Each structure stands twice: as C-alpha cells, then as structure tokens.
Amino acid sequence: MDFEKHERLAPIYAAIGQECAAIVGGNPDGLYLYAEAGQGWSGVAVFMNEGRAVRYFAPTRELCALIQEAWDKEETGQPWLVMEYEIHGGMFDANLIYPDEMGPGLTMAERQRDALRRRFGRKAVLYPPYPDNSPG
C-alpha cells in the first residue's frame, strides 16, 4: 500500500479492528472478517477461530458503515469487491480482492463459503440459533 493510501485508510482499518473487538467481546486475536461492498451496499460477516470450530458474529451498523467508508475511499478506477480482514498477534492484515480477480458466476454466499474453507479448512462454523418467532 502506498503512503498516501495508507494515510487515508489506516484510521478506518484501525476502527474496523476496534469495532470487531467490541463485537466479539474482547480479544480479537484469530478474528476473520469477510465483507463485500459496492456503491451504497455492503455484506459483512465476522468469524472467530475458537480452535475446533469457528464462531459467526453478526456485524453492527457501525462496522458496515466502516466497510462502506473504506470502499468509498478507494481511488482506483475499479474499486474492490471483497475485503478479507484478519487479526493476529494484535496486528491486522486487510486483503482486497477486485472483481476481475473473482471467479465468474458465484454468489456472495458461495464466495464467502469458499473464503472460509480457504481460511479455516473444514472446521464447523457455529451460527446463533434463529429466533423463535412463533406465537407464545
């Protein structure tokens, strides 16, 4: 990342890490964020490596706004489509993937599934139970 881009995006990336730490309730070491964004939209998921499994955490509105802000500050002719953001040892790494680097015909859910498999192998992903909306 060049110096100007670093100066422009570093505070946003730091804020993303802080928001992710709040979402997981503490130490974010082992955190993996998968986000897709475009003009006026984002899809974000937070995952935490818990050893034998990976736990999903729902994003906050604040995190989605930060992802959108990072996307909006991209100054290339072709903005990124996917952000993979990881935290290890108190340091973050953000990998941006551009549309021309993506395989054709995959949905966002399929791309996220494939990214999770690359990152965590076949570990189980633990999602919270769906709320029971039946009349009581």
Biggest sheet: strand arrangement: 5-4-1-2-3-6
Radius of gyration, in angstroms, nearest whole number: 15 Å
**Cα-to-Cα separation, first versus last residue:** 54 Å
Contiguous helical run count: 3
**Count the strands?**
6
Strand-pairing-aware structural class: alpha+beta
Q: From N to C, what is the helix and strand string?
A: HEEEHEEHE
The amount of helix comes to 25-40%
**General form:** globular
Q: Could you explain the architecture of this structure?
A:
- The protein has 136 residues and is an alpha+beta fold.
- The protein has helices spanning 3-24, 61-72, 108-120; strands spanning 31-38, 41-49, 53-57, 82-88, 91-97, 124-126.
- Strands 5-4-1-2-3-6 form a six-stranded mixed β-sheet, with helices on both faces.
- A hairpin with a 2-residue loop joins strand 1 and strand 2.
- Helix 1 packs antiparallel against helix 2 (61-72).
- 21% of the residues are buried.
- The mean pLDDT is 90.
Provide a compact summary of the structure.
The chain is of the alpha+beta class and 136 residues long. The chain is 35% helix and 29% strand.
Pick out its properties:
136 residues, alpha+beta, six-stranded mixed beta sheet, 3 helices, 35% helix, 29% strand
Write the layout of secondary structure elements.
Layout: H1 3-24, E1 31-38, E2 41-49, E3 53-57, H2 61-72, E4 82-88, E5 91-97, H3 108-120, E6 124-126
Parallel strand pairs: 3-6
Antiparallel strand pairs: 1-2, 1-4, 2-3, 4-5
Helix pairs in contact: 1-2
